[in-house]
Amino acid sequence: MAQEKTKIRLSLDVSPELNETLDDLAMKTGTTKSDILRKAIALMEVAVDAKQHQNKLGILDEQRHLVREIVGI
User: Fold this and answer.
1) Cβ neighbours of residue 66 under 8 Å, at least 6 residues apart?
2) Where do the H-state alpha helices sit in the chain?
3) Which of 17, 36, 58, 69 falls 20 to 30 Å from 4 in CA-CA distance?
4) Where are the domains of the chain?
5) Helix-strand-coil split of the chain, %, nearest 5
6) How far apart are the first and last CA of the chain?
7) Residue 3 — pLDDT band, cuts 50, 70, 90?
8) Which residues pair with 13 in a beta bridge?
9) Model confidence over 18-67: pLDDT tens digits?
10) Contact (CB, 8 A) for 47 and 59
């Protein structure tokens, strides 16, 4: 018997600027604001895990050179 996934609805207050950012990201990626928030949480989980293991999070170019280090997470 397959287990049913239960979803929990959250209510979130954001500034007009953050709402505009969410709208823009959703449009650029062809997804929804909810999807953007889910992906942001997943990315935050990766960042926190990396920090706990004394690793760093960054963006690499095609030649694997560090373009930007993500700090402050």
Assistant:
1) 58, 59, 60
2) 16-29, 33-52
3) 36
4) 17-70
5) 45, 10, 40
6) 40
7) low
8) none
9) 999 999 999 999 999 999 999 999 999 999 999 999 998 999 999 999 99
10) no
